[in-house]
């Protein structure tokens, strides 16, 4: 699936550092033949680009729960990178092809009983995903059509705008504390930027999963819509954002998010070491194994 | 209009650095003859000081739209400096004498087809205006009686309290991105201090102009009143703030705003260079020329 | 009352620095004899620990107004330290045994007509109280059953959750500016973390005391309940927080509060010097004396 040598390419400067290289994309030349929709299929994420609007959709299709495995993250980074470098693409809508779940967050199997090399590669891919998405030059809209705990919530938080299906059975939040683990500082920084310090303090300590109506109330999502209106609404919001000239919007976004992005860039290796030493603890490994066995029993 | 040599005086330490020099102003001696109102008229701003209350009003009267020209900014700084040093003055209400507009923001003619020296002088005056107003020892109340885009919004944001006429046709916001330009980092810092990071991110990227009711909802203004009640309300709010002892209030204000003021002071020359290199770009000059021609055609 | 030599023990590393030393407290061994309630009485604060739930209550009983004297602060630190080191204790509810008042804040008699040594000792104890409480590893819930100005408000702000009696006659806020004094920067930082920069700016400058309903509206307290439901509600909230594993919650709390705690730790001696030079001013001493005489007259 992923050709060897691709991932290292994925580990270059994050997108936000490249604003200067992409001054105001020129409008499509009207003389060119129209190629209205191009899809590059792969294993875990379906990417569709509508060249007439300049809007791509990244649809997570990794059943049962769109968990963020190393393969998923690698595909995510490559897909985003391709779109970022495609002059025909100005915005991305992130959504799920799996019913009832947006993404369940980091794949626990990647963190259980593996080598230090594997943990390093996995954590670097998690960082990379966030650096690229939070720092993307494109307009990013999360169309949250299912539950979105932990890393799934991080993906939504990293977008410019969050629309969620108004079903109160769907919930969203950084619930790491419920599993006995601690959200990394850059998850926390991203969360505080969205909901503020007070709400973040209690929500992170309690590992709260907020049902959609509550998520709206605390500002964790920007609006709720009925499920059948979600894609239409996401397209309308995207059109509103794309009405602005790209260059000024990109520089503005970079200015707003730079401090938080720089913090991870400055402490990236420490953050990896911290993850490894935490995840390698026997007590943590034991709880993850128990949690996985519980999930297996649930399935059967 | 402005005597030569006055502007340099205007470029000294910002007011917030002077708190220690103005310990608790003594109350007016009751034996002195009352001089209830003094007005010092000038070209662009009408300043009236009511010595009995200690409240001055700065009324912008630079038709058609109170744009922030170099002359306007220079008068603004001089007027504010005079009031700051006048023991009879403890608070200032900022409002407009021009119907339907508070201030349209920076004067585009100052940024179009001029010399580097001119750009330098202009940008320094914009910085100076903000440093003096945001760091003022006086209580500052914005009585926003008209639309207030870009630099006009910055003036309102820099006050201690914002009252706006409840007319939904009047809007306020940092709409720089709509013109293809980027709000400076200290505009952004001031905005984030008022509305928080989440609202600031989308509002700045979209260059949103918020109609009065929405401005209230996001906390961009503190209250709305009918137009005929505006001055009365501003006076009442001012009286409430002036009921507090000056010295403690001034030190508190300085403590709250110091971090953001210090950031511009530490990067002032870089900020000027950044403005010059941006505004000197042919692409930017071209869009400003087009924008100005559009405005001219509108008039005729 | 306080044995000599105890206070220095109280001046060690604040609790937040010790997270690593207290990994996940083991559940009580079921074979041990039950000691369901232990009370260690002292002069100013009644401490009760319910070992079955792991919840302690610290009840302020220093009439007439639970003012934060040096004795009160010393007891507060010692009590909190004991609970912090007691494996049977996982959470603390702070409340008042004095009707209508939670705590009136710093004891003015400690700041009036005393020696520099006394001011130093007093201010260090105020800092210590905040460092221990804001950085506590335990879950801390404020059950605010009366008015809570200044230092009383700081105690509530430093907890994880604030429940207040819904009586609009009870108010809460950092009203230092009303007395002509300035809240220290770490009072301000704690306040901003709870209500945000905009609300903090006006509230601190005006020295506002917010009646309970308004306190709820601005997020200064998390919920209001009828007086007779307060302790029950505090216990229910505590149980919800204690349902989470301690270790992850403690590390999360430390991550959220570290920046603000570190700021005082880095400037602790300067902050003491600043307090001494401020409080030693004749003008400040004079207003405090006048204020105390006013209070005495009120009583008689």
From TrEMBL, chains A, B, C:
<comment type="function">
    <text>Key enzyme of fatty acid beta-oxidation. Able to isomerize both 3-cis (3Z) and 3-trans (3E) double bonds into the 2-trans (2E) form in a range of enoyl-CoA species, with a preference for (3Z)-enoyl-CoAs over (3E)-enoyl-CoAs. The catalytic efficiency of this enzyme is not affected by the fatty acyl chain length.</text>
</comment>
<keyword id="KW-0007">Acetylation</keyword>
<comment type="similarity">
    <text>Belongs to the enoyl-CoA hydratase/isomerase family.</text>
</comment>
<protein>
    <recommendedName>
        <fullName>Enoyl-CoA delta isomerase 1, mitochondrial</fullName>
        <ecNumber>5.3.3.8</ecNumber>
    </recommendedName>
</protein>
<dbReference type="GO" id="GO:0006635">
    <property type="term" value="P:fatty acid beta-oxidation"/>
</dbReference>
<comment type="subunit">
    <text>Homotrimer.</text>
</comment>
<keyword id="KW-0413">Isomerase</keyword>
<dbReference type="InterPro" id="IPR018376">
    <property type="entry name" value="Enoyl-CoA_hyd/isom_CS"/>
</dbReference>
<dbReference type="InterPro" id="IPR001753">
    <property type="entry name" value="Enoyl-CoA_hydra/iso"/>
</dbReference>
<comment type="pathway">
    <text>Lipid metabolism; fatty acid beta-oxidation.</text>
</comment>
<dbReference type="GO" id="GO:0004165">
    <property type="term" value="F:delta(3)-delta(2)-enoyl-CoA isomerase activity"/>
</dbReference>
<keyword id="KW-0443">Lipid metabolism</keyword>
<keyword id="KW-0496">Mitochondrion</keyword>
<dbReference type="Pfam" id="PF00378">
    <property type="entry name" value="ECH_1"/>
</dbReference>
<dbReference type="InterPro" id="IPR029045">
    <property type="entry name" value="ClpP/crotonase-like_dom_sf"/>
</dbReference>
<dbReference type="GO" id="GO:0005759">
    <property type="term" value="C:mitochondrial matrix"/>
</dbReference>
<keyword id="KW-0276">Fatty acid metabolism</keyword>
<keyword id="KW-0809">Transit peptide</keyword>
């Amino acid at each position: 699936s992923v050709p060897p040598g691709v991932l290292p390419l994925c580990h270059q400067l994050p997108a936000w550092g490249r604003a200067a290289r992409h001054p105001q994309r020129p409008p499509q030349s009207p003389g060119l033949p129209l190629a209205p929709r191009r899809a590059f299929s792969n294993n875990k994420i379906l990417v569709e680009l509508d060249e007439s609007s300049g809007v791509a959709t990244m649809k997570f299709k990794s059943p049962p729960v769109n968990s963020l495995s190393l393969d998923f993250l690698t595909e995510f980074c490559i897909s985003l990178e391709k779109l970022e470098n495609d002059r025909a693409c100005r915005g991305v809508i992130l959504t799920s092809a799996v019913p009832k779940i947006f993404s369940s967050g980091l794949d626990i199997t990647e963190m259980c009983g593996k080598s230090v090399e594997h943990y390093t590669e996995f954590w670097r891919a998690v960082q990379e995903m966030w650096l690229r998405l939070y720092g993307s030059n494109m307009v990013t809209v999360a169309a949250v059509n299912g539950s979105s705990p932990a890393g799934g919530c991080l993906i939504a938080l990293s977008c410019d705008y969050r629309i969620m299906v108004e079903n109160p059975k769907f919930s969203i939040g950084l619930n790491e504390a419920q599993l006995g683990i601690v959200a990394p500082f850059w998850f926390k920084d991203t969360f505080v930027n969205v909901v503020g310090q007070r709400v973040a303090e209690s929500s992170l300590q309690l590992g709260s999963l907020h049902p959609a109506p509550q998520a709206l109330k605390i500002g964790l999502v920007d609006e709720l819509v009925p499920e059948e209106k979600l894609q239409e609404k996401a397209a309308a919001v995207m059109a509103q954002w794309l009405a602005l000239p790209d260059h000024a919007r990109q520089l503005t976004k970079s200015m707003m998010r730079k401090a938080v992005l720089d913090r991870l860039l400055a402490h990236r290796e420490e953050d990896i070491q911290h993850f490894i030493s935490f995840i390698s603890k026997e007590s943590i490994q034991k709880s993850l194994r128990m949690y996985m066995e519980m999930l297996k029993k649930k399935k059967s």
